[in-house]
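Reproducibility note. Readers wishing to regenerate the assembly model reported in the main text can use the exact inputs given here. Chain order matters: entities are listed in the order in which they were concatenated for prediction.
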Amino acid sequence: MNITEILFWFLTALAILSALMVVFSRNPVHSVLWLILVFFAISGHYIMLNAQFLAIVNLIVYAGAIMVLFLFVIMLMNMNSDSEPQKNKWLKMAGTVAGGSLLLILVAALKNSEVQYQKVEGAQGTIGLIHNLGKTLFTDYVVPFEISSVLFLSAMVGAVVIGKKD
Amino acid sequence: MGPASMIVLIIAAVVFSLIAIFASKFVLKATRNKQKGEPYECGVPTQGKTWVRFNVGYYLFALIFLIFDVELIFLYPWAVAVKQVGWIALVEIIIFFFILFIGLLYAHKKGALKWT
Amino acid sequence: MNVIILSAILGVIMMYTGVMSKNKSTARYVATAGILALIGANWLEFAGVNFFNIDTRGMLEFTSFGLVFNLIILVCTLVYFLLSGKDLEEVGANAADYFALIFFILTGIAIVSAFKTMLMLFIGIEIISIPLYILAGSDKKNLRSNEAALKYFLMGSFSTGLMLMGIALLYGATGTFYTDGMYLGLGNITVMKMAGLVLLMISLGFKVSAVPFHFWTPDVYDGSPTVFTSFMATIVKAAFFIAFLLLFENAFGRMHSEWQFAMALITAATLIIGNITAVFQQSVKRMLAYSSIAQAGFMLLAIFALNNIGKQGLILYTAAYSLPTIGIFAVLMRMKDYTYEGFNGFAKHQPLLAALLAVFLFSLAGIPLTGGFFAKYYMLVAAMKNGAMFWLVIIGVCCAAISVYYYFRIIQAMYFREGADPGIQVSEGFKTVLVLTAVLVIILGVHPDWLLHLLDN
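Running the prediction on these inputs yields the following structure tokens for the assembly.
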């Protein structure tokens, strides 16, 4: 095992464990904090795949901004252990069974698929480097890039319409 | 090694700062009292729990911040690639930011940025 | 491209109209003028005049099919503005912003009617969806509207997540975002690609509220302000269908046989459950929500069949379903009582409106001489031409018969029951527009070719 592999397994274990903790924590604020750890672990994976831009986006937008939003929502709702709604036991069971079935089917289907024989590009790939990404984004993908600003604009209008006091 | 070295660096940074924190534990004589646990050691004592309900007003700001945060992300690849792509990239980013500036101006005119 | 850019600009103009003008009605006039400009721009593009010459690297392709579809959508939006613009102003205090959001949605619709890459599909679908979540919750003081918005948002973003997952898997399998590059050759359909296809089918099925992904539809349509239900159930629904059809035709058309059976099952379930549940509804608004599921079943036949007649049928269906539904909703919005009993004795007090409503209901039920007849006819012929799975056609015919029951319940209440004056007031302009809409529906039913001839350009 070289150092890359050790790091890979470490980050993987960290991601899965913290993801489980997100689900199992009773306190919603703790869930959010664990989720931040998940994002950090996944960013580590991105860096190992040489996808720097994705790693930065993941850290700045997800671990930074979106988590702040999550915390805001939790703070807005004034949650504590007393007011936490009791979930239906059957609903929980049904959710587990449904999620488990999807996992089983996807694993069963994908284990023999072509993925197995294609080696991940790993650190050799250069497409995820910021430089290459920038070049592609501003030459080939200009139109989607500019159109996405319309999406931002509509999100802005939405935020103002919904969030502002009348 | 490439990217792995970057992660090693990150871990080293974390370990280094942890060492700094724990080193102070050994060097200093630890004192613990109630006063020290307060968020503000001097000043008005805090009242009630810290987990109180926030004003909804913050949320609008957080949302608008998020939108601009995502926009900002696009500046990174632009800044790196602008020299190679040339002036057309400049035009593209100006259009992009102009559209978003329109959005900001709108939020301002609507009074969404006013704290009431 | 004309429509995409112009409607985005119009959205911005609407945003600032709300800020600049204190008069509530200004927004409506500007929006109506804007939609007329859009229709003109679309027509010019159809005639070969492009205002903007942008190299999209083949990501967008403006075919006559997409442009005709856009034309219908824009005309429907015009009718919607004229009929329901006033009611739109009544919801909350942000009328101009709602118009702005609607123009942004039109941008998204123009994108999904022309996309050639998965990337554009995703951006288009998002530009349509995000304003919709907001419109669903625009009646902020009303808890049911809040619930509708939250439900729609949670379910909608989940389905968008599935779509992204599907796109990612397809990209992994083929290495391209372009829909033309999705074909690997028959017998070469790998598990990864199939998984991507199924995820896309599920997420788009959700967007068009196909059974079994329809559970959000009645609650969202019922809870949202009726003005926006009218918009969501007609124009937006048709837009998701065009995205569905174009994606499955361009990307997966050559592996049609692989997914046809799954699509047949979805179609059959949508037809049966949509129609049968609609029978048991007591509220007309909720009935229309289920009827939109039922009509979606017929539109799904076009994707099942994936042939030229189906495409023509979808164009026809968009017009023959949207126009009447907008008309019915425009009248329904003015009623106090949304149950069937509310329509008792309607014909006596409002003879003209009752007659027009009857025309619209005939069209939805697919009675000859109205647009709905030819729309359903084209869909069934398309499914029959396809050859495979004849049982689907039989289900379609049976379901069309069932649908007559619940549409005619309104007509029965209007004409054969006694009731108090519903006390609705409509202006002369409203009546004129409604009459013109009805005339359009009848013209579609007598001579649908004039619309379909446009496709040959």
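We highlight two features of this model. The longest helix of chain C spans residues 143-174. The CA atoms of residues 271 and 297 of chain C lie 5 Å apart.
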